[in-house]
Amino acid sequence: MAARAKRPRPEEDIWDHCALLEAKLMEAQSYMMTLAKDNERLHVLLRKYMEKDDQLHSMSQMSNASGDVAATLGLGHDMDPGTSQMSQLTELSEPGEEAQLSSVYEFIDSVKALKKGSPSKSKAQIPPPAPLRPERIPTGIGVMIVDPESHPGCVLVGRRRGSHGAGKYALPGGHLEKHESWRTCATRELKEETDLEIPEDSMSFVWVDNSDMPEEAKHYTTIFLLAPLPEGSSPPQNMEPNKCDGWEWISWIDLQKRAAAEPTSLFIPLLNCLTKGCDPFNVPGGKFSSDAL
């Protein structure tokens, strides 16, 4: 049975995503400015510290000069203890030269330049996203299995469950996979769903339908193939009970009557076949070459 097709992200979701990214960018810029302000404060403190160190260094030189004078005069033991402590403090205070702080200053200057040259953008200034590419229509394969010997005038149908079209009668079939031929897809789906094995070369083209299902947000191009059941085949089995209630043989005439009386009981692709003139028991040939199959 057909799997649910993935829908593209709506344009509104893209705008919401852009707004979220813009908010995160503004938050990052605010954080950077906070760091810059903190570094500016550090810059001022370092400047004051260096000025204080220069003062201490000058006092140390004065202290050394005083010590020399005191030694000359023989007063070395009577010096002010405060002056000696100041000299020791000066020896311990080595903040580094201006070149060691250049990385801090360069960072602050770069943040200031960034703030001046990169104003925040409003939503109106954000360029609109590129237009969404229209969703491509997937291809489905429907197989009309016929058994002229045991079930003349009938096709095999089953009631869908667990996916779109649940509760409606449909033919065996499914999605055409990449690089598959129509017949290869039909053979694979029949084996997966009914455990029937029908030779590919016995299958023929019957009908193509533009299966639009807006109420279920689905749209397919459905290719229908006729597949005669080989003699001696085992009865069809319900291999996917989570997708189908079971298989049964129903005459094409009865299905046409059901299409007229209870159209909602039939899956759209099959309903279109029944109401638009398809007849698997009277198929005009020559419309498609065997290569298309």
Automatic annotation (TrEMBL):
The biological processes this protein is annotated with in GO are: dGTP catabolic process
Annotated stretches, region: Disordered: 116-137
The family database entries (Gene3D superfamilies) matched by this protein are listed as: Nucleoside Triphosphate Pyrophosphohydrolase
Q: Which organism is it from?
A: Pinguiococcus pyrenoidosus
Q: Which UniProt keywords apply?
A: Hydrolase
Which CDD domains does this entry report, sorted A to Z? NUDIX_MTH2_Nudt15 (cd04678)
Recorded GO molecular functions are: 8-oxo-7,8-dihydrodeoxyguanosine triphosphate pyrophosphatase activity
Output the Pfam families linked to this UniProt entry. NUDIX
Gene Ontology cellular-component annotations: cytosol
Protein name as it appears in the record: Nudix hydrolase domain-containing protein
